[in-house]
Amino acid sequence: MGAPAAKAEHHPDDEPTAPAPPPGPGPPQVAPFALAPVSAIAAALAAVLTAYSPRYGFHRDELYFIAAGHHPAWGYSDQPPLTPLIARASTALFGESPAGLRVAATLFVAAAVITVAAIARELHGGRPAQILAALTAATSGFVVGIGHLLSTATLDLLAWLVVTLLVLRLLRTGNPRWWIPIGATTGLTLENKYLVVLLFAALLPSLATLGPRRVLRSPHLLTAIALALAIAAPNVIWQATHDWPQLHVAGGINREDGIENRTLFIGEQLLYLSPLYVPIWIAGWLRLRRTPSLRWARSITVAYPLLCLLVIATGGKAYYAIPLLLVLLAAGCEPAVRWARRRLLITAVTLTAAVTAVLSLPLLPTSAIAIPQAVNPEVAEEVGWPQLTDAVARAWSRIPPPDRPRAVILAQNYGQAGALAHYGPSRKLPTAYSGHMSFADWGPPPNEANGPVILILQRGSKGYEADFTGCRQATRVDNGQGVDNEEQDAAIMLCTGTARPWSSLWPHVRHLY
């Protein structure tokens, strides 16, 4: 809410004056927040996520975040420092296990559910609408999926929702001082991912088009921009001094996945929350567009499609637009509770919860993982990392002890390298190297470590023959559970040495995507 108007000073000797005119209308009032039921819904989601967090195992990205957390820096090749820092803190407090790491993810999505309900309230949603907003957010596939794993997207979802809530508060109250917390939150978000720039690239033109434009003329906006840049500056400086590797990664995503991302974008917008929730967020768009008392929030109706166009143009992933879709969902909960039958809403939420549990949580045994994998391929990447490390240990045992001080283990990607960093010490394996993403910054091996070399190569990998000598297959990776993921059947190659010194070889080995 805006700051209360200052009271005029009154002196006892003042002459009586005519009565003051009645005050003009203040900011639109909102309903009380449904704290108890909304918190109960968030707590129930947190309990479910906690119960299933130990199942299967680490995701490849989580292993990378843990490794990055042990190499603290102001930036990494593919991300700012916040998520690795959170991974380090979570595992230090709760243990270096899937359950310990995912405590942070659970807390973030529980907070995101509460924020969605707060957005519904900000958009004049009453108690039933706030409860429905929390229920739909807590059962949607994307929210539950990123709550099960710790990723940059987990914190980014919460951050975007908080920024949007603050922007809506700014628009509803007209108090320009809300720009200051918007700037601070944006700066922190930039220390997690740069994608929040897309949010403002969609919001600011929408505000300039549909208003209220007066908030764009406030000097507090410039202060907010300066504050955001100041908070983000350490990572921006790191990126600039390292040749902007994140731009190279973004370019790789566009080149490798851009066509697929564009092709699937519309379908994934319909599926990521739930097909059963599509009528609710469409109703939210129409409500913001047509309701006179919500005229101040009409910019969201342009910001969402504009954000979608920006994501499509850059070849980004469809989930980048999900936070604003959740805002539309929150806006649609008020008409939904007024127009739809209660039994219909209960059925939609119940069916969505059931499907989400199967597709987004490790609910099924690994023997049936192909079912969720068909829709959510990432679930299979939680299986097989200890077995991969065991395969490397078998190859290592074939190296004669006198040769081991000169031996090197080289992983093809950060998932393999992260698994070896986590599971390798218990198998008495040395530190593994990789040229992938930030692992390349933590290398290369010393030149005197010129062989033998163990290579881990995914199926179909080629091109290593020119860089290493005397290579033969020592074994293959078998996760022992029949899960067909990216590392299943990876070849563990044992080479006699390198074709040139590591200092010369490393630029060729390094790759960002």
Head-to-tail CA distance between termini? 45 Å
Q: How would you spell out the order of helices and strands?
A: HHHHHHHHHHHHHHHHHEHEEEEEEH
Biggest beta sheet attributes: 5 strands, mixed
- Helix tally equals 19
Task: Estimate percent helicity.
Answer: 55-70%
Radius of gyration: 26 Å
Q: Give me the side-by-side strand order of the main sheet.
A: 2-1-3-6-5
Structural class: mainly alpha
* Shape, principal axes of CA atoms: globular
How much of the sequence lies in strands comes to under 5%
- What's the number of extended β-strand segments? 7
Poorly predicted spans: 1-24
Average of per-residue pLDDT values: 92
Descriptive overview:
- The chain is 56% helix and 5% strand.
- The chain has 19 helices and seven strands.
- It has helices spanning 35-52, 60-69, 82-94, 98-122, 127-139, 141-148, 152-173, 179-190, 196-210, 219-241, 245-271, 278-290, 299-314, 322-339, 342-360, 370-373, 385-397, 414-423, 502-509, and strands at 408-411, 433-434, 453-457, 468-469, 472-476, 491-495, 497-498.
- It has a five-stranded mixed β-sheet.
- Helix 18 links the parallel strand 1 and strand 2 (433-434).
- Helix 4 (98-122) runs antiparallel to helix 6 (141-148).
- The longest helix has 27 residues, at 245-271.
- The radius of gyration is 26 Å and the shape is globular.
- 48% of the residues are buried.
- Residues 1-24 have low confidence and may be disordered.
